[in-house]
Amino acid sequence: MEQLPLDESTWTGGLKPADYFQSLANYKHLVLSLYRDASVADEERERVAAALPAPVDDLRLVVLTEDWCGDSATTLPYIARLGEALGVDMRVFRQSRNALLKQWYVDHGTDHIPVVSVVRGTDDGWQEVLRWVERPASAQGRVEEWIGAQPRFTELRARKDEDPAAAKEYFGLYARLLREMASWYRNGLWTEIADEFSEGLVKNRR
Question: Most CB atoms within 10 A, among 22, 79, 153, 184?
Answer without folding.
Answer: 79
